[in-house]
């Protein structure tokens, strides 16, 4: 890879790391909302979101975490399988390493964006409008980090990666549509579980999904545009 390409890719990583570091500083110095022990009034929430508000459900919360983890592992699995069945292992290996790099970079930016937004928005989670809220959320101060949904952002960041990967590497594959549909179904499942578990409102998960997909697709496009010339030379 040419020096200019390396510098550009390293620069993208450093900028993303700096962005994430700023999020940590902002969170450290931002005032924390303290709960007074009283249930919040659901009438203060807009009608659309209020209709989707649910009390806290730990089991559904855990299932949502599991689906997100499986979605992440699934995206890496298809890249690994693609490498195994590739005839040109040398090119396939370089592509796989680069794709993992892009995957990590897109997560870095997406997480920084939604975490900063959570801090400044300070939106109260749905379960705080019902009795018996999440004690863990209260203890960690996470009860006021509802918007946007981080799980939705991460899941749709993965979806963006899968969509771009198929478009770029395997646009004519018979598995493209089934896998993309499968990943979108997983993303929707995560969104629904985040609402049913009482962690998020409808606008939280929709906003998170949009942030994750936009960050993922844009970073995939940018990094691959930088890397494309090198791939043509292989």
Q: Nearest-angstrom radius of gyration? A: 20 Å
Strand content: under 5%
Unreliable residue runs: 229-234
> Structural class per helix/strand content?
mainly alpha
Number of strands: 0
- How many angstroms separate the termini? 10 Å
Question: What does the main sheet amount to?
Answer: none
How would you sum up this structure, described in words?
There is one protein chain. Mean pLDDT is 91; it is low at 229-234. The protein is mainly alpha-helical. The protein has 8 helices and no strands. The protein is globular, with a radius of gyration of 20 Å. α6 packs antiparallel against α7 (176-196) and α7 (176-196) packs antiparallel against α8. Helices cover 74% and strands 0% of the residues.
Per-chain topology:
Elements: H1 3-29, H2 47-52, H3 58-85, H4 89-121, H5 135-140, H6 150-169, H7 176-196, H8 202-233
Helix pairs in contact: 1-4, 3-4, 3-6, 3-7, 4-6, 4-8, 6-7, 6-8, 7-8
Give a short summary of the structure.
This protein has 234 residues and is mostly helical.
């Amino acid at each position: 890879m040419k020096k200019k390409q390396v510098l550009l890719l390293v620069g993208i990583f450093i900028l993303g790391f700096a962005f994430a570091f700023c999020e940590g500083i902002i969170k450290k110095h931002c005032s924390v909302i303290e709960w007074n022990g009283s249930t919040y009034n659901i009438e203060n929430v807009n009608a659309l979101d209020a209709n989707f508000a649910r009390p806290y459900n730990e089991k559904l919360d855990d299932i949502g975490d599991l689906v997100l983890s499986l979605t992440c592992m699934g995206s890496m699995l298809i890249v690994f399988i693609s490498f195994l069945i590739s005839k040109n292992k040398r090119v396939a290996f370089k592509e796989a390493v680069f794709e993992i790099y892009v995957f990590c970079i897109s997560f870095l930016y997406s997480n920084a964006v939604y975490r900063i937004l959570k801090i400044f928005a300070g939106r109260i989670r749905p379960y705080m409008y019902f009795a018996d809220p999440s004690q863990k959320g209260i203890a960690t101060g996470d009860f006021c980090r509802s918007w946007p949904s981080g799980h939705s952002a991460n899941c749709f960041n993965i979806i963006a990666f899968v969509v771009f990967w198929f478009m770029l590497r395997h646009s004519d594959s018979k598995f493209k549509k089934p896998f993309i549909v499968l990943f979108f179904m997983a993303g929707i499942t995560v969104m629904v579980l985040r609402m049913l578990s009482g962690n998020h409102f409808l606008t939280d998960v929709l906003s998170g999904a949009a942030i994750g997909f936009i960050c993922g697709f844009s970073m995939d496009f940018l990094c691959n545009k930088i890397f494309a010339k090198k791939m043509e030379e292989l």
